Amino acid sequence: MRRSADELNKMRKAGKVVAEMHEATRAALRPGVTTMELNNIAAAVLERRNARSNFLNYNGFPAVICTSPNDMIVHGIPGDYVLQEGDIISVDCGAIIEGYHGDAAYTAGVGEVSKEAQRLMDVTERSLWAGIEQLVKGNRLHEVGRAVQQVAEAAGYGVVREYVGHAIGTAMHESPQVPNYWPGSPGPTLKEGMVFAVEPMINIGGPETFQLEDGWSVVTADQSLSAHFEHTIAVTDNGPEVFTLP
Ligand code: MG
Ligand code: MG
Q: What residues have their beta carbon closer than 5 A to ion ligand 1?
């Protein structure tokens, strides 16, 4: 679906709120902090900016962010988990402004992290940007996944298949999906005004996932570390515009 200039403006605003949630939670990452404290910091940003949460109550999700440490890929529920020196943690944030959604995630280290963990985060972020570069008018959507997959697999990593990116607008998750791998067909042709959340989930080991009994948390089946980066991006006449940058 294509968004009007007015709609894109609202999504720009929602994106800025999400970027602010990133900055605020990132600044709080240190050993001893709980994931619930990160959630509360993000909730304070939403309140200050008069934004609504698209995560809270989404299919019953109980928080405004997802916090997924180490071998957890996505959808971790903030709680009493205490961040440890050397952890990596994915923080996924979303906001609604005037009915329009923003959605973005980052993965960061807590204190000093291993070289392995740092490389995983660097490659995953690089794969996101390789995907974003494909969001140009006239290109086909699944080139995004092809680009993500190339970067991740060249580094020897596994690309998660069961969870994917998505179009976004008046709902957080709209059609079509945005796979992080080549799904065997080129997908829809990109037009100006389309907006997508691109979100590679990359594992040091294999791509297989496992869902925990809480019904949300998704971990790597082989317990290898996983990283997740996401932005909300519009296809414009001037190339991709990332809404969720500060
Ligand atoms: Mg997200
Ligand atoms: Mg998303």
A: 92, 103, 105, 230
Q: What is the pTM of this model?
A: 0.98
Over residues 7-53, the pLDDT tens digits come to: 999 999 999 999 999 999 999 999 999 999 999 999 999 999 999 99
Distance CA 218, CA 221 (A): 9
Q: How far apart are CA 179 and CA 201, in angstroms?
A: 10
Give the Å distance between the CA of 199 and the centre of ligand 2: 6
Q: What is the spatial distance between Cα 76 and Cα 96, in angstroms, rounded to a whole number?
A: 21
State the Cα–Cα distance between residues 113 and 86, nearest whole angstrom: 4
Q: How much distance in Å is there from the Cα of 53 to the middle of ligand 2? A: 13
Q: Where are the beta strands (DSSP E) in 79-230?
A: 88-97, 100-109, 158-159, 165-167, 174-178, 195-198, 201-203, 209-211, 218-220, 226-228
Q: How far apart are CA 165 and CA 121, in angstroms?
A: 18
Helix-, strand-, coil-residue percentages of the chain, each rounded to 5: 30, 30, 45
CATH number for the domain spanning 176: value is 3.90.230.10
Please name which ligand lies nearest the alpha carbon of 172. Answer: 2
Domain count, the chain: 1
Which of the ligands is closest to the CA of residue 94? 1
pLDDT in tens, 118-136: 999 999 999 999 999 999 9
Q: What is the residue range of 153's domain?
A: 5-242
Mean pLDDT, all residues of the chain: 98
